[in-house]
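Action item from last meeting closed. Structure (150 res):
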Protein backbone atom coordinates (compact mmCIF):
# COMPACT_ATOMS: atom_id res chain seq x y z
CA UNK A 1 0.00 0.00 0.00
CA UNK A 2 1.38 3.41 -0.94
CA UNK A 3 2.12 5.69 1.98
CA UNK A 4 -0.47 8.22 0.84
CA UNK A 5 -3.14 5.52 0.75
CA UNK A 6 -2.14 4.38 4.21
CA UNK A 7 -2.38 7.95 5.49
CA UNK A 8 -5.81 8.32 3.91
CA UNK A 9 -6.97 5.12 5.62
CA UNK A 10 -5.72 6.34 9.00
CA UNK A 11 -7.48 9.68 8.60
CA UNK A 12 -10.75 8.07 7.51
CA UNK A 13 -10.59 5.59 10.40
CA UNK A 14 -10.29 8.41 12.94
CA UNK A 15 -13.06 10.35 11.18
CA UNK A 16 -15.47 7.41 11.17
CA UNK A 17 -14.52 6.15 14.64
CA UNK A 18 -13.44 9.20 16.63
CA UNK A 19 -11.52 8.33 19.79
CA UNK A 20 -12.50 9.82 23.15
CA UNK A 21 -15.72 11.20 21.68
CA UNK A 22 -18.17 12.89 24.03
CA UNK A 23 -18.12 15.23 27.01
CA UNK A 24 -16.80 14.83 30.56
CA UNK A 25 -18.71 15.51 33.75
CA UNK A 26 -17.07 18.30 35.75
CA UNK A 27 -14.07 18.88 33.49
CA UNK A 28 -11.20 20.87 34.93
CA UNK A 29 -10.55 22.59 31.63
CA UNK A 30 -12.67 23.10 28.53
CA UNK A 31 -12.57 25.06 25.32
CA UNK A 32 -14.60 25.41 22.15
CA UNK A 33 -12.89 26.05 18.84
CA UNK A 34 -14.29 27.10 15.48
CA UNK A 35 -12.71 27.23 12.05
CA UNK A 36 -15.08 29.58 10.21
CA UNK A 37 -13.32 29.02 6.87
CA UNK A 38 -14.61 25.47 6.79
CA UNK A 39 -17.37 25.42 9.42
CA UNK A 40 -15.44 23.03 11.69
CA UNK A 41 -16.27 22.93 15.40
CA UNK A 42 -14.41 21.18 18.22
CA UNK A 43 -15.14 21.10 21.95
CA UNK A 44 -12.60 19.68 24.37
CA UNK A 45 -12.96 18.67 28.02
CA UNK A 46 -9.97 17.71 30.17
CA UNK A 47 -9.32 16.29 33.60
CA UNK A 48 -5.93 16.31 35.24
CA UNK A 49 -4.09 14.40 37.91
CA UNK A 50 -1.23 16.60 39.00
CA UNK A 51 0.33 17.85 35.79
CA UNK A 52 -0.89 14.86 33.78
CA UNK A 53 -4.00 14.76 31.58
CA UNK A 54 -5.97 11.82 32.97
CA UNK A 55 -9.06 12.15 30.79
CA UNK A 56 -9.91 13.89 27.57
CA UNK A 57 -13.11 14.09 25.58
CA UNK A 58 -13.72 15.73 22.23
CA UNK A 59 -16.95 16.59 20.50
CA UNK A 60 -17.67 18.46 17.33
CA UNK A 61 -18.57 18.44 13.71
CA UNK A 62 -16.93 19.40 10.48
CA UNK A 63 -14.74 18.04 7.74
CA UNK A 64 -12.84 14.77 7.94
CA UNK A 65 -9.48 16.48 8.44
CA UNK A 66 -10.65 18.55 11.41
CA UNK A 67 -12.43 15.68 13.15
CA UNK A 68 -9.71 13.11 12.46
CA UNK A 69 -7.01 15.47 13.67
CA UNK A 70 -8.89 16.13 16.92
CA UNK A 71 -9.36 12.38 17.44
CA UNK A 72 -5.64 11.74 16.90
CA UNK A 73 -4.76 14.62 19.20
CA UNK A 74 -6.99 13.21 21.96
CA UNK A 75 -5.22 9.86 21.77
CA UNK A 76 -1.80 11.48 21.74
CA UNK A 77 -2.30 13.68 24.81
CA UNK A 78 -4.17 11.26 27.08
CA UNK A 79 -1.94 10.30 30.00
CA UNK A 80 0.74 12.81 29.04
CA UNK A 81 2.15 15.57 31.21
CA UNK A 82 1.67 19.20 30.28
CA UNK A 83 5.34 19.42 29.27
CA UNK A 84 5.00 16.39 27.01
CA UNK A 85 1.86 17.88 25.48
CA UNK A 86 3.71 21.14 24.77
CA UNK A 87 6.36 19.08 22.93
CA UNK A 88 3.70 17.22 20.94
CA UNK A 89 1.98 20.47 19.99
CA UNK A 90 5.34 21.91 18.90
CA UNK A 91 6.04 18.78 16.87
CA UNK A 92 2.65 19.07 15.21
CA UNK A 93 3.20 22.74 14.37
CA UNK A 94 6.60 21.88 12.92
CA UNK A 95 5.11 19.06 10.86
CA UNK A 96 2.39 21.31 9.45
CA UNK A 97 4.63 24.31 8.91
CA UNK A 98 4.29 25.82 5.47
CA UNK A 99 7.94 26.84 5.65
CA UNK A 100 8.93 23.20 5.70
CA UNK A 101 6.58 22.06 2.95
CA UNK A 102 9.51 20.83 0.90
CA UNK A 103 11.61 19.70 3.84
CA UNK A 104 11.57 16.56 5.95
CA UNK A 105 8.87 18.00 8.21
CA UNK A 106 9.77 15.98 11.25
CA UNK A 107 13.09 16.27 13.02
CA UNK A 108 13.72 12.94 14.79
CA UNK A 109 16.20 14.55 17.18
CA UNK A 110 13.66 16.87 18.69
CA UNK A 111 10.97 16.15 21.24
CA UNK A 112 7.54 15.60 19.83
CA UNK A 113 8.97 14.18 16.63
CA UNK A 114 7.23 10.84 17.04
CA UNK A 115 3.60 11.69 16.48
CA UNK A 116 2.22 8.26 15.55
CA UNK A 117 -1.06 8.42 13.66
CA UNK A 118 -0.78 12.20 13.59
CA UNK A 119 1.93 11.88 10.98
CA UNK A 120 -0.81 10.77 8.58
CA UNK A 121 -1.81 14.45 8.43
CA UNK A 122 1.45 15.65 6.96
CA UNK A 123 0.05 15.36 3.42
CA UNK A 124 -2.35 18.14 4.41
CA UNK A 125 0.57 20.58 4.21
CA UNK A 126 0.07 20.62 0.45
CA UNK A 127 -3.39 22.15 0.97
CA UNK A 128 -2.87 25.39 2.91
CA UNK A 129 -6.60 25.94 3.47
CA UNK A 130 -6.79 22.56 5.19
CA UNK A 131 -3.99 23.32 7.62
CA UNK A 132 -6.48 25.33 9.69
CA UNK A 133 -8.75 22.28 9.74
CA UNK A 134 -5.93 20.06 11.00
CA UNK A 135 -4.81 22.63 13.58
CA UNK A 136 -8.22 23.32 15.09
CA UNK A 137 -8.10 20.49 17.64
CA UNK A 138 -4.61 21.44 18.78
CA UNK A 139 -5.43 25.13 19.05
CA UNK A 140 -8.54 24.31 21.06
CA UNK A 141 -6.51 22.02 23.31
CA UNK A 142 -3.96 24.74 24.03
CA UNK A 143 -6.77 27.18 24.76
CA UNK A 144 -8.27 24.72 27.27
CA UNK A 145 -4.87 24.21 28.93
CA UNK A 146 -4.19 27.94 29.09
CA UNK A 147 -7.38 28.35 31.13
CA UNK A 148 -5.73 26.26 33.85
CA UNK A 149 -3.00 28.76 34.52
CA UNK A 150 -3.58 31.09 37.45
ZN1 LIG B 1 -12.30 21.66 7.73
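Sequence:
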Amino acid sequence: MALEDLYREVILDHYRNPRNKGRLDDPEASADGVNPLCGDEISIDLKLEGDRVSAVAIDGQGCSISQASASMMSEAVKGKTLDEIADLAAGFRRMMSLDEADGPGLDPDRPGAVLGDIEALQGVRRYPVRIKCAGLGWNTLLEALSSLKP
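Note appended to the action item: The longest helix spans residues 128-146.
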